[in-house]
Amino acid sequence: MKKAITMTDIFKNPRYRGKHVVLAAGRVYTANTGEGAAEILRKVRKNQPGVTPEVAYLPNAHSLML
Asked: Is residue 66 part of a domain?
């Protein structure tokens, strides 16, 4: 049986650094820009209306958030 991916798993994975990440129904979607993430959200809400997506931006390791 396959383990369901969680947002904690995504935060630990360096592959997603510097990207916007959307987790919906066990699938991971990534975008480089906020506009791309918004488009993914629109598509997820349209195609899977009963699913609540989780959205996060994972900054690069050496970026400074002000």
From this structure: no
Range of the domain at 42: 7-58
DSSP of 11-50: HH-GGGTTEEEEEETTEEEEESSHHHHHHHHHHHHHH-TT
Does residue 65 sit within a domain?
no
pLDDT digits (tens, 9 = 90+) for 13-44: 999 999 999 999 889 999 999 999 999 999 99
Q: Is the pTM of this model over 0.85?
A: no
Q: Is residue 26 part of a domain?
A: yes
